[in-house]
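Hi F.,

I've been meaning to write this up properly since the lab meeting, where we talked about keeping a consistent format for the predictions we share between groups. The idea is simple: the sequence comes first, exactly as it goes in, then the structure tokens exactly as they come out, then a line or two of notes. No screenshots and no reformatting. I'm using this chain as the first example so we have something concrete to point to.
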Amino acid sequence: MDEVRDEAGLAARKKALRAQMMAARERAHGEYGGKAGEALAALAAAALGEARGRTVSGFHSYGSEIDCLPLLAAMADAGWGTCLPVVVRPREPLVFRRWRPGEPTEPGRWDIPVPRADAETVDPDILLVPLLAFDRSGYRLGYGGGFYDRTLDRLRRLKPVLAVGIAYSAQEVEAVPRGDNDEPVDLVLTEKGPVRLARQEAPPAGS
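Output, unedited:
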């Protein structure tokens, strides 16, 4: 019974913080707009290193998320393999299909564009991860589906990966409510630059 109450309390705290941080992100998006995505692109080389045959996953922004496609395009131009996540089924890890900015897409879950079904599937070395809130321990608050938590758990069992949260600086909080299955990110990139996390930062995958 105590475990059920704890889970219910955690869910309630996350729900309340989601509403608060959605509003904070909307305000930041209204202030910075497309300039935030361009700022991230300028940070790519210094923050993430050289390609060296590695693959990075991005995402098509949804709502007030920072547009990370300029960053993904810059990395593709620098020799990185690039891909996008695809939701195959609820409560399962994401699948990644190879894709370069400018290539055709098709509607995915929530009508978010995804690579075509015949695209090659890959396991990325670096993941650009959307979020609603983050803290200096590297924990992030997502939308509640658990897709990136399950995905990071799967990939980290296979090989070294680097999870990079993509956020406005206004999305930082003192502490994100977290449970046993919540996976941290290794680095956060904001429109103001990389955020140094208190947890030991992992080196770029393959370094």
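Notes:
The chain has four helices and twelve strands.
Residues 200-207 have pLDDT under 50 and may be disordered.

If this format works for you, I'll send the rest the same way.

G.
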